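Hey, can you fold this one?
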Amino acid sequence: MIKRIAILIMVCAALTGCGEKFPDANYDVTGSWHLTKYDSGTKSVNIGSEAVDIYIEFLSGGVFNLYQKKGEGRYYHYKGTWSRNNNIVSGMYSDYTPWACDYKVYKETGGKTLMMTANNFTREQMTLISSQIPDSVRIDAIDK
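Sure. Predicted structure:
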């Protein structure tokens, strides 16, 4: 009897696999996103005394556009390439500088919220909502 239970447990484990599994759609970051919350345990959405506003667009061809504004200044436009392996997203800017780290990603609230957590020793976590990038941001941005 114990042997049957052990075999049943092994069969169930083999069928379900190890760890938490989510549908691939929960990892698809393609689209435009707006930063609503940034938390690293030691940092805020401010750099010094300046507020930061970020839009990012992940295109299906593996290209991204990032628009970042500090304080009351203009947006800066950074571009580059990105890739996803399961729930890990990595990227490289157009000057071949890699992102500071890779990010674990997961979509919530029916795909309208994207959680990006640094895949390193920091506790950095970003919450982004699905949002079109305003034309005024795109047009006025300074290319970097």
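The CA atoms of residues 39 and 125 lie 5 Å apart. Let me know if you want another pass with a different chain boundary.
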